[in-house]
Specification:
Layout lengths: L4 E6 L4 E8 L3 E9 L1 H4 L7 H23 L8 E7 L3 H18 L3 E5 H7 L13 E6 L4 E8 L2 E7 L5 H12 L5 H9 L31 H18 L19 H27 L3 E5 L6 H9 L4 E3 L3 H4 L4 H12 L20 E2 L1
Parallel strand pairs: 1-4, 4-5, 6-9, 9-10
Antiparallel strand pairs: 1-2, 2-3, 6-7, 7-8, 8-11
Helix pairs in contact: 2-3, 4-11, 5-6, 5-7, 5-8, 6-8
The structure holds 5'-O-[(R)-(carboxyoxy)(hydroxy)phosphoryl]adenosine (KG4) and zinc ion.
């Protein structure tokens, strides 16, 4: 078989993305149009705006991906698109576009899972890909998953969040304190000049979840931490505003007496501590020493520094442009399915969530 350029389309959240990847490894183009400026005023992704922007942009983004790859539509040999999980209205745009493209050109089509695609990202480089099995750490605005990865399409979820995703906690804390949007990068930056020990925030106990053999042993929880950090703001407000706390939605300036850098650093330290506690348990129990990280939170500099301290573990972070949502990871994993003959029917649907993903995923 000759070279096989695959077009990958990603539209699960607020990035409108398309890429061309050859043979599941070599990236010819990787175009990501971010909608961040359109959601910033709301401090979060607004689903309807996201769907509309994807509808406006998808054609141009695909066209640009083809142009940058130096290919015409007729040179593509297959198309992959994210069908789950994500915002339904957003998913449907990329999925339907990909279906129409393949129908018009009589090409093979494959619908792929966004989380599996994140785990595929480190295989898109010239270096030796991480050998299976390894541990996966998927941390984003919508997901916090620790899993065992046996193949590109075979993972077992060991632990996940019982409430909020880790990126969501970064975003919410940032929103209440007015640190900026998206919250993760803003907090990461602020925290560099902060004292991580200035505030002591609680670690979740998850009942008896830490016990050997407990089904919650690797699970995570972020709502307690989020509330504790937000309550800190409320407390300062009460102190500084003479007892009138006001609404927590109020995004006034950070109150006097609170160093934003210290709040950011203390929150970030605890958020990462929660992740690492479960991840290190999983590494110890499974004996797996290679970790592949993915999702927006994998860009966090404190998380990276803490993982680098563990000389007994090898943690692989995809380059920044492949850490967040992108079309290259979709084209890459799509190639693997297509190359072994898998095809999705053109009536395949999108799913916001993945049923039963708690244990055997997908
Ligand atoms: O994977 P992603 O781009 O989109 C999905 O949610 O699928 O991840 C976005 C999330 C947001 O919650 C954002 O605040 C967080 O990743 N994030 C970070 C950092 N950069 C982005 N969180 C912590 N530290 C960062 N440097
Ligand atoms: Zn993602």
């Amino acid at each position: 078989m000759g070279e096989m350029p695959i077009l990958g389309i990603e539209s699960s959240c607020d990035e409108c993305a398309a890429a061309v990847v050859v043979d599941g490894r070599r990236i010819l183009s990787n175009v990501v149009a971010t909608q961040i400026p359109f959601h910033a005023a709301w401090n979060g992704v607004v689903p309807e705006i996201a769907s509309r922007k994807h509808t406006e942009w998808i054609y141009g983004v695909v066209q640009e991906a083809l142009n940058k790859a130096g290919l015409g539509a007729g040179d593509v040999q297959g198309v992959a698109a994210t069908s789950r999980p994500g915002l339904l209205g957003s998913l449907l745009v990329g999925l339907s576009f990909a279906k129409a493209f393949t129908w018009a050109r009589n090409l093979p089509f494959i619908a792929v899972d966004h989380m599996l695609a994140h785990l595929y990202a480190p295989r898109l480089s010239a270096g030796e890909p991480p050998p299976y099995p390894f541990l996966g750490l998927l941390v984003s605005g919508g997901h916090s998953i620790i899993c065992r990865v046996d193949d590109f399409d075979d993972i077992t979820v060991l632990g996940t969040t019982i409430d909020d995703a880790v990126g969501e906690a970064f975003d919410k804390v940032s929103k209440y304190y007015g640190f900026g949007y998206p919250g993760g990068a803003a907090i990461d930056k602020l925290a560099r000049d902060g004292n991580p020990l200035a505030f002591r925030f609680p670690m979740p106990s998850l009942h008896k979840g830490g016990e050997q053999g407990s089904k919650h042993r690797y699970d995570l929880s972020y709502s307690g931490l989020k509330t504790a950090v937000i309550n800190q703001l409320e407390m300062f407000r009460v102190k500084n505003a003479g007892g009138n706390g006001g609404s927590m939605e109020n995004q006034g300036p950070v109150p006097a007496g609170t160093r934003p850098e210290d709040i950011a650093a203390s929150f970030q330290k605890t958020a990462v501590e929660i992740l690492l506690r479960s991840l290190f348990r999983a590494a110890g129990d499974t004996g797996l020493s290679v970790i592949v990280a993915g999702g927006g939170v994998a860009a966090n500099s404190y998380l990276r520094a803490r993982l680098a301290e563990r000389r007994d573990l090898r943690c692989i972070f995809p380059p920044p442009e492949l850490c967040g949502d992108n079309g290259a990871m979709i084209a890459g994993i799509g190639y693997q399915y297509l190359a072994r003959g898998d095809r999705s029917p053109l009536n395949v649907t999108a799913s916001a969530r993945v049923k039963g993903f708690k244990r055997g995923y997908p």
